[in-house]
Each structure stands twice: as structure tokens, then as C-alpha cells.
Amino acid sequence: MSAPRRALIVIDAQQEYFDGLLQIQYPDREQSVAAIANTMDEASKAGIPVVVVQHQAPAGFPVFAPESSTFALHPQVRARVEAADHKFTKGYASIFAGTGLEEWLREREIDTLTLVGYMTNNCVIGSAAAAEPLGFSVEVLSDATGAIGIANAAGSIPAQQVHETLMAVLNSNWASVATSAAWASAAAEGSELPGGNLIESAARGNSLR
After folding, report:
1. Planar angle of CA 120, 140, 31, nearest 5 degrees
2. CATH code of the domain covering residue 11
3. How confident is the model at residue 105 (pLDDT cuts 50, 70, 90)?
């Protein structure tokens, strides 16, 4: 098989997830953003294009308002953004909706997207699912992403359970899930990351009944 033609997509590594209403709870947010920054460095070393995305809500919105201090990129990402190959804002969970990203990727014959950033339970899983019908392979780095705990009328789930459950869900169908260290090795070698599949995951899951 041919080597994957990757792009690293840094999703919404913004101060909202550190100082705002949506503070990442698992994994540790300082460790996860350090992993994001290191992955950006490793991508640059391997000649992999880096794309930086920021979520932008309407002015006055309680999160991601462009005039707010929490709209800004985290300093570790901001220090690297000038070296990025592409940067844009988005208004939906998906990195594709109304952004022109698909066209940018196709022009460069990229077939594999490595997703890092926030949140696991919104923009990461939304972007991974949106990539499937477009034909892109997806990789998600478990220690360079992060989740929040959620509680609503349907139930409540702590952040660790949210994150770990969605990593298993992603690896069962939509993505190859790995640590940033494992990804860096694969990126340097130009090799694929192993992933699961729905049939095998379902068969192994039968024993959990």
C-alpha cells in the first residue's frame, strides 16, 4: 500500500478550553495541549502540512465570541501558527462545513487527516464522521484531544468516560486512534497507523454483555 498523504488538523486549541466555560477535564488539559504542540513540531519535521482551525461564534455569544479573550489560540499553539500551512475559522462542529477545507486538501492530494484538539465529544467526533463520506482516512490522537463531563436530560457522564468511550467508538469505525508518540513514529516512517473495524469491535464486544 502507498504511504498515507497526511495533514495535521489542529481543531480549536483555544483559550475557551482553558479559561472559559468549556474547560477540558480529561485528559489533563495542560498535558494535552503540550502534546498538540509537540505533534505540530513532529509534523513539520516530517513535512506534513499543518492546518490550524478556530471556532468562531457570533459577537456576544457566551463562548467563542471573536471579541472575547477566550477566542484566542492557546499560547503553545499561537507560537507555532505562523509556521502552519493553512488557517481558518469555522462555525460548526465539522471542520468541512462552509470552510473550503475539502478543496484545499484535494488540491494537495491529501488522503489522511490527523485530528488533534478539542473537544472529543463535539468537533473531533463531528469532523471524523464528516470525513467518512468524503473518502478521507482519519487518525485521532488520544492524548492530544480532550473532553468535558456532560449532564443533561438524557443522563450524565464524567469526562474520562466520555473521552475513553469516544476513542473506542472512533477506533471501531471512523478513525485509527493512537497516542501522539505512536503517531510521531508512524509519521517519521511514512507508515499507516493500525485501526480497528466495526465487525471485529462488535465481535469482541459480545463478551461484555
Report:
1. 65
2. 3.40.50.850
3. very high
